[in-house]
Design goal:
This protein is α/β, with parallel strands linked by helices. It contains 38 helices and seven strands. The chain has a seven-stranded mixed sheet with strand order 3-2-1-4-5-7-6, sandwiched between helices.
């Protein structure tokens, strides 16, 4: 036992593990060995491995307060917060004056969002043990969540005074100083944490956040990569996405290329956040760059396989096959780059030409199949937005007819036929295509068939199960419904994963640490309405963001809702209820909500302000609302394109959208339309239709929004914007440290016209009495 304690004191945890394992083998019914093993494993960061030994220690030593407190600490780290609270309280039943258990309980209560109780627990720990540095650190974290930042800083400094080498306190101090006094002092604090503990992954992650907010994205990316090499967490992965998404690489970067493949395939963030930087990196590959350059030079003339890929034609695809980042992008997100789109358009034509030659029906299958199937999946994802010539359409139609003929005759189908047909037409639209599911195919083809046949069939079957909560009678609502029945929006493949949902109050305090707001009564189990959920990406994000959320997600379009239900089931989420409803009639439901989110919906109503007031009538007193609205200034060029579309009488069919896109791309790049064709929404049929062809669109100003908030007794909490935007605003208006002065934000936007190029996205709280007019 003395040897174990000595090894603990010296931080030699691997040796502690070996010795503790030996103890548990010789004395399996003695709790001490299990307790030592669990603590050693936790100190080495192996928290999941530590859980079982800690549970055994607590079971074998039911009167050992330390064993129960240790178990509570591990359970908290694993996100099992209710169990963690129970273990800490058990420790305090055994030993009421156990300072460590009070401190651990405070940590757990903070994670549960019960901040007042968390503060009380930490202060009780300090009453018992006034020189307890860890309790001061935990108290600081709680005060930080309570937006009492000056007190939090003082608490962290007290922890450091007691324990000068307390890396965790320096790291937390840095995070708080960033919110309170700016980046320089915050960065110094994080770097001090890393001097003490060079392999401190959390401090590296925090430093990366600080650097990225200052616009030092390259250094931030290097820093977060260091953190990921030490320890991967959901937070560090999301920080990687935040750091890399605005970069433009000038040379091929193997480390970040590999990381981006993982980020796309493992859902570190939304794939569209990685699309532009990923495509840019792909284009830096010399072989791919040559193909892209050939396509750009020849456009709009189509090239043969030899002219596009090189002298060996289709056989030269091995370079593309060995490009995992290109494949990950093709499989995940519309390719939002004109040069790459033109190359892929020509690649599709070259493959069609090759496959229609009888002698190569089954050649080049092997490795080439990876790229061919990825290209077909991309075409399905972007809803066949690529242009095609009349000759190309005829050849593709002939191949589709040959495929149907083979299915009718029950003869063997060449493996490349369905792949190439799938690059031109969705397979679910091909007669008898379901017969393809009965054949054994290579894995890549089987996956393609799931995407284009099985999943659409699942959505079709779901239509009868979608409940309808209201009638849809408003003329504009009916037009909008028709648009989204034809083009469910957005068609997405993956959503950012989130393994750490938080209470509503905690989320909002982290977003707006300096803004005072009322506490939400239903903090742990909020009722949330998503008004206009589309295809489910928004509702899934929200359900994963807020702990205990009960979500009602409504939309006009049954097609969109079926897509949403399928994707939600795919993720095994059970907290979302989907239904068809018209926002204008939601007041008839007789329901109310703690949180309401409506992004990109109100500005498509005949009267957005009336629709907003309807949503407010459903929001409980003290409830929170997130709104997304188009900016008049940021969409100035989009408005000009919409005018051009109207003047030239383009329709909203897929064919007209394809034709309009090509016409816009042929315009001078210095034109006002360049920002429209550079928008990521331009690169798929449904998103382009929503961007440029929507049947109803209003655009707002911050002055108008401010007037509406004032008239309806609403408190503005702040915008959800990139950190560098917030820093720039505060530098321009240092008098507004909480960044809630909408008059000054209007000035800032006037000076920086593209600030809200996506939308105004902001949070408000219902503070006064509201009556629906």
């Amino acid at each position: 036992m003395n040897t174990l304690l000595a090894l603990f004191a010296e931080g030699r945890y691997a040796e502690v593990e070996s010795l503790a394992l030996a103890l548990t083998e010789h004395f399996p019914l003695h709790g001490f060995g299990w307790k030592a093993l669990g603590v050693a494993l936790k100190q080495m960061g192996r928290i999941a491995d530590a859980l079982t030994p800690m549970q055994k220690a607590a079971a074998l030593s039911p009167s050992d307060a330390e064993a129960h407190s240790n178990l509570g600490n591990a359970l908290m780290d694993l996100g099992r917060l209710d169990e963690a609270e129970a273990s800490c309280r058990r420790a305090l039943q055994i030993k009421p004056d156990y300072a460590e258990a009070h401190s651990n309980l405070g940590n757990t209560l903070r994670e549960l969002g019960r901040l007042d109780a968390a503060e009380a627990s930490c202060r009780r720990a300090l009453q018992i043990k006034p020189d307890f540095a860890e309790a001061y650190n935990n108290l600081g974290a709680t005060l930080q969540e309570l937006s009492r930042l000056d007190e939090a800083v003082a608490s962290y400094r007290q922890a450091i005074q007691i324990k000068p080498d307390f890396a965790e306190a320096y790291n937390n101090l840095g995070a708080t100083l960033q919110q309170l006094s700016g980046p320089d002092e915050a960065e110094a604090s994080c770097r001090r944490a890393l001097q003490i503990k060079p392999d401190y992954a959390e401090a590296l992650t925090n430093l990366a956040v600080l650097l990225n907010a200052q616009g030092k994205s390259i250094v931030a990316l290097r820093t977060i990569n260091q953190s990921l090499q030490i320890k991967e967490t959901g937070h560090s992965k999301s920080v990687f996405v935040a750091c890399v998404k605005h970069l433009r690489f000038t040379h091929d970067d193997c480390e970040n290329r590999i990381a981006m493949v993982r980020a796309l395939t493992e859902s570190w963030g939304r794939p569209r956040d990685l699309a532009r930087v990923g495509i840019g990196l792909v284009k830096l590959s010399p072989d791919i760059a040559e193909c892209v350059a050939r396509a750009a030079l020849a456009w709009p003339r189509r090239l043969s396989a030899q002219d596009l890929f090189g002298a060996n034609g289709i056989s030269s695809l091995t370079t593309l096959v060995s490009a995992p980042l290109l494949h990950a992008l093709l499989n995940s997100v519309p390719i939002c780059d004109t040069e790459m789109e033109r190359f892929l358009t020509m690649a599709r034509w070259a493959l069609l030409e090759a496959v229609t030659e009888m002698s190569v029906k089954d050649r080049g299958v092997g490795a080439d199949l990876d790229f061919l199937c990825a290209l077909a999946r991309q075409c399905f994802i972007n809803e066949y937005v690529f242009s095609l010539t009349d000759i190309e359409f005829q050849k593709a139609s002939d191949l589709r007819d040959s495929l149907v003929g083979a299915l009718e005759a029950r003869t063997q189908v060449p493996v490349l036929w369905p792949v190439v047909v799938a690059a031109y037409f969705p397979l679910y639209s091909v007669p008898l295509a379901t017969l393809l599911l009965n054949t054994q195919w290579p894995e890549e083809v089987a996956s393609l068939l799931v995407q284009q046949i099985r999943e659409p069939e699942e959505e079709r079957q779901l239509r009868v199960s979608i409940p309808r909560l209201t009638d849809i009678e408003d003329a504009v609502s009916l037009l909008v419904q028709s648009q989204y029945e034809e083009n469910p929006y957005p068609r997405w493949v993956k959503v950012a994963s989130n393994d750490n949902p938080l209470a509503v109050g905690v989320v909002l305090r982290r977003l707006f640490p300096l803004v005072p707001f009322q506490k939400l009564d239903a903090n742990d189990s909020p009722d949330i309405l998503i008004a206009g959920c589309g295809t489910g990406q928004h509702s899934i994000d929200t359900a994963q963001r807020f702990r205990g959320a009960r979500v009602l997600a409504v939309d006009l379009s049954v097609s969109s809702l079926c897509y949403a239900v399928r994707k939600t089931r795919e993720l095994d989420l059970t907290s979302i209820e989907y239904a068809q409803a018209d926002l204008l009639k939601l007041a008839s439901l007789g329901r109310s909500f703690d949180v309401i989110e409506s992004a990109g919906v109100l500005h498509h109503l005949a009267d957005p302000w009336a629709g907003w007031r309807i949503l407010l009538s459903l929001l409980r007193p003290g409830g929170f609302m997130k709104i997304g609205l188009y900016s008049e200034l940021a969409r100035r060029n989009i408005a000009r394109v919409r005018t051009l579309i109207s003047e030239r009488n383009y329709g909203s069919s897929a064919e007209d959208i394809r034709r309009c896109r090509q016409d816009l791309l042929s315009l001078d790049k210095s034109s006002d339309f360049e920002s429209a064709v550079g928008c990521s929404d331009f690169f798929s049929i449904s998103e382009c239709r929503d961007l440029l062809f929507h049947v109803q669109e209003h655009r707002m100003t911050l002055t108008g929004i401010e007037e509406f908030l004032r008239d309806n007794h609403l408190a503005f909490l702040g915008f959800e914007v990139d950190p560098h935007v917030l820093i720039a605003y505060k530098q321009r208006f240092p008098n507004d440290c909480v960044a809630t002065n909408l008059g000054q934000w209007q000035i800032f936007e006037n000076e920086n016209a593209d600030t809200f190029s996506g939308m105004y996205q902001f949070w408000i709280q219902k503070t006064g009495h509201f009556t629906l007019q």
